[in-house]
Structures are given as C-alpha cells and as structure tokens.
User: Fold this.
Amino acid sequence: MAGKGFIPAVYGSSDLRRLLRDVEDRYGDAFAELGPGALQDFKHLIDCIDSFLDLLADPKTDFRVKLMSYGKIRSDVFEFCRFYARWLGNPLMERLKAEIYELLEEAIAWWGEQDVLDIMGC
Assistant:
C-alpha cells in the first residue's frame, strides 16, 4: 500500500478531527455488531486519539511529552486491533490500524509544521 494512502494530505486540527470521525463512522458498525462493550472500547480509542490531537495543538506542552504520547497511542492502537482481530478478522483490523496510523502521522506532520511556522514568526 506504499504510495497510496487512505487519508488525503490535509492539514489542520479540524481536518484531522473530521478524518477521525470518518474513521469512527466507517468502523463503528462492525464494533456495534459485537455488542455494546466492543463499541464502547472503540469509542474510547477514538476519544484517546482525539485527546492526543488536543495535546499536539497545545503549544504549552513539551515536545517530549507529545512524542511519548504519540508512541503510547500507536501502541494502544496496535493492541486494540490485535485484540479485536479475533472477532472481526485480521484484514479489517489491519485496515483500521493503517488508517489510524496514517492519521497519527498526518497529525505529527501538522504539529511539526506548526512549530516551524512559530519559529519563523508566521
């Protein structure tokens, strides 16, 4: 899948949140079919990613905290997808993981651009 991403190159925290909600809409029904507990777990994961986006947008948060949080959320996504692959199948969970990872990478790129613009005084 190299070269062809799931997420168009857009920047801005509101665009990233919209993309996150799109992921939630696309995959929510699969978790709802498993039951309310699975859907609640999925919504919790989405909320954690949303909180991470808030953290990235906060200029007062140290960059090391942001990078450690990035590593933690990636690990959480990996574990979540590995756990639910038992019931929803590996292909679906691999696709979900890839979309979320791409969203997280877009978020990190956006954050890096914001820091450069701040340094340049733009």
Observations:
- The two ends are 35 Å apart (CA to CA).
- The chain is about 85% helix and 0% strand.
- The first helix runs from residue 13 to 34.
- The helical segments are 13-34, 36-57, 63-88, 90-120.
